[in-house]
Write a structure and sequence with these properties.
Length: 388
């Protein structure tokens, strides 16, 4: 078993001694080129380079290597897995003892008939046993790769400067590409997002064997849920196609290294103020805004930058670039992007009633429309990127 997760959404850190970490969100390749690249944000892989510096690896000198999971994350994985296994084993032990009492003598006592385990109860116990066996195997695998060098996934190939694009007015470029070392992957990297599972067979889609846990998709319309389930394969949702940026508000999801699978609502593309780095001037730019659905605290958090935003059909929406609890409209006003060549500075203010209603304190995630990102990558590298 290889150490590298092959589905996007895993934590991306530095091989060198840095605590910074983000998310690898999408796999790309260039036409007529063999390497596969992992897409993330520029600020996740920038190293010590200044905000106005871009990067292209020339092949000379020591490359900047990246890994899956920094030391803290790797340690947390082990702790969580061991805690899960201990909880499963505790449940299995107590349940088997209870069923043993029933099988031995309680079934003959009329006053104990309410303790009779159902078929579903026994099936649940069997699933927990299978989960315990699987968790033990994962722990054994993870424990083999304690050294960071063993979790190296590849090296930095390109990243943009952190600046407003000359090609797309108002777009703040913030992307990076990692050239992957495919020898580290057991399975070929694919754009298939893992969806939470609860190990129950779904009546309409038995080929999935498991039903994804709907608690991660609150308020998702049933017809959309049915479409998503029909597209899932072994607990994964394949990502393909791009949602046009002009689409109205709709339900989206993402899997990030920090907050895992979360859901939200994509609203308008609005003008926001971004602070690139300490000592740099604020930048007014266009960002796609995503708010968490009712009943959830946030769509993303620190460490989720680079995550891919997708819809219930698996179509790609955008790239998570930042989030904030206190978004700052320019001078307290709000502006909506109304045309392809409109820049935030010259855009007219709009009535707040025309935009999504945002309650004070609402966590807001910023995302760049994926087509903007792909177009800028092509402009920067001279090669057309393809989503694999």
């Amino acid at each position: 078993m290889q150490p590298m997760l092959s589905s996007p959404g895993f934590p991306l850190g530095y091989l060198e001694d840095r605590r910074d970490q983000g998310t690898l969100g999408l796999y790309l390749r260039f036409a007529d080129h063999e390497p596969i690249y992992g897409l993330t944000c520029r600020h996740v892989v920038r190293g010590d380079r200044k905000v106005d510096e871009s990067y292209k690896y020339s092949g000379a000198g020591q490359p900047q290597y990246h890994i899956q999971g920094n030391e803290t994350t790797f340690y947390d994985w082990q702790i969580d897995l061991e805690a899960t296994l201990a909880e499963n084993n505790k449940f299995i032990k107590s349940t088997e003892e209870a069923y043993g009492r029933w099988d031995s003598y309680q079934q003959y006592d009329e006053k104990k008939q309410h303790l009779c385990p159902t078929k579903q109860d026994r099936e649940h116990l069997q699933r927990q046993k299978l989960l315990a066996v699987y968790t033990e195997k994962v722990i054994q695998c993870v424990s083999q790769f304690p050294q960071k060098s063993q979790r190296t996934i590849g090296h930095l190939a390109f990243h943009s400067a952190f600046q407003v694009s000359t090609r797309k007015p108002g777009y703040l470029t913030d992307w990076g590409l990692i050239e992957l070392d495919l020898k580290k992957y057991e399975d070929h990297p694919e754009n298939r997002v893992f969806i939470e599972l609860d190990f129950k067979k779904h009546e309409d889609y038995p080929e999935n064997r498991v039903l994804f846990n709907t608690k991660h998709m609150p308020e998702m319309p049933s017809h959309q849920l049915d479409v998503m389930l029909s597209k899932m394969d072994k607990g994964h949702l394949p990502l393909s196609g791009i949602v046009p940026e002009e689409h109205d508000s709709f339900f989206v999801a993402k899997r990030g290294a920090r907050t895992g699978l979360t859901t939200g609502v994509k609203t308008e593309i609005e003008a926001v103020i971004r602070l690139p780095a300490c000592g740099s001037d604020d930048i007014l730019c266009w960002e796609m805004l995503i708010v968490p659905v009712k009943g959830t605290d946030k769509f993303s958090d620190c460490g989720d930058s680079g995550s891919t935003v997708f819809d219930y059909k698996g179509r790609i929406v955008g790239l998570v670039t930042a989030s904030t609890h206190e978004p700052r409209p320019k001078d307290g006003k709000r502006k909506k992007r109304t045309g392809q060549n409109v820049v935030p500075d010259t855009a007219g203010e709009v009535d707040a009633a025309e935009l999504a209603t945002l309650v004070d304190g609402t966590d807001i995630t910023f995302a760049a429309p994926i087509q903007w990102v792909l177009d800028d990558i092509e402009s920067f590298t001279g090669m057309k990127p393809e989503i694999i």
